[in-house]
Amino acid sequence: MAKLDPEGRRGDPLADRSKDFDLIEADLIEEVEALYDGKDPAHDFTHALRVFRTATAIAEAEGADPTIVALAALLHDAASGPKDRSRGEAEERVLEIVEPLLKSWGYPDEVVEGVLYAVEVHSYSKGIDPATPEARVLQDADRLDALGAIGIARVFMTGGSLGRPLYHPEDPFCRGREPDDGEWNLDHFFSKLLKLEEGMKTEAGERLARRRGAFLRRYLSELEEEISKGI
C-alpha cells in the first residue's frame, strides 16, 4: 500500500495496483472504477485513487480501521454524477449506491456503517466535525486533494468545464469584494481552498496541508506578478 514519507511524497507509482489494493479484491476495484463513469474530471476515479492513497497512509498513524478507510476513500464520490448535479442530490445518490454494494460484497454491518458514516460527513459544504477516526481520515484526505499542485489543476479544470472566466478583471484576488466562485474561477482559492489548512482533523493532515497550502500561496503570488506586471 502506498506510503507517505515525512514530506508527504508518495513512493508508489499510480500503475502499481498490486501494492495499492492489498485490502480489497481486484475485481471489486473494477466495479468501483465503473461507478465513476460520467464524473467530472476533477472528481473522477483518479481523484478517488489519490484520496485512497493519502487516506490509507494517514490511517495507520491515526489508529483508524484500514478497511473502512480504504472503502470509504474509494467510494466517497462514486456514482454521484456530473459536477452540475446538485450537491444534495449527488451525496444522496452516493449513499444509495454504497450501502447495497458493500452488503453484496459481503462486508459485515460494522464495516458498512463505518463506511457510510465517513462518506456522509466528509463533504466540506456540510461543515460536520467527524466523530470517528475513519471519518476524520477521509475528510482530511479529500481536502488535501484540493490543495497543492493537484488542487490548482482541479480548480481550473472544473472552472473551465463550467465555462467560468479565469478571474475578476478589476479585483482578481478578492481584496475589495467577497469571493464568488460560482462566477470567477480564481475566487475558489479564497472561498474555500485557503481555508482548508485550519480545518484538518489529523496530525498528518495538518502537516501535509501546511506544505500544500504554502504551495498555493506561492502560486498566487507568482500569478499576481504576472497579471499585474506582465513580466
Describe this structure in words.
With 231 residues, the chain is mainly alpha-helical. The chain folds into two domains: 14-125, HD-domain/PDEase-like (Cyclin A, domain 1, Orthogonal Bundle); 146-231, Hypothetical protein af1432, CATH 1.10.3210. The chain is built from ten helices and no strands. It has helices at residues 17-20, 26-34, 45-62, 66-75, 87-104, 109-121, 133-144, 148-161, 187-191, 203-229. The protein is globular. The model is unreliable at 1-21 (pLDDT under 50). It comes from Candidatus Methanocrinis natronophilus.
Low-confidence spans: pLDDT under 50, at least 5 residues? Answer: 1-21
Count of separate DSSP helical elements: 10
CATH topology of the largest domain: Cyclin A, domain 1
Into which percent range does the helicity of residues fall? 55-70%
- The CATH H-level homologous superfamily of the largest domain: HD-domain/PDEase-like
Indicate the CATH class of the largest domain: Mainly Alpha
Protein name: HD domain-containing protein
InterPro entries: HD/PDEase_dom (IPR003607), HD_domain (IPR006674)
Domain HD: 44-147
Q: What secondary-structure arrangement, pairings included, does this model have?
A:
Layout: H1 17-20, H2 26-34, H3 45-62, H4 66-75, H5 87-104, H6 109-121, H7 133-144, H8 148-161, H9 187-191, H10 203-229
Helix pairs in contact: 3-4, 3-7, 4-6, 4-7, 5-6, 6-7, 7-10, 8-10
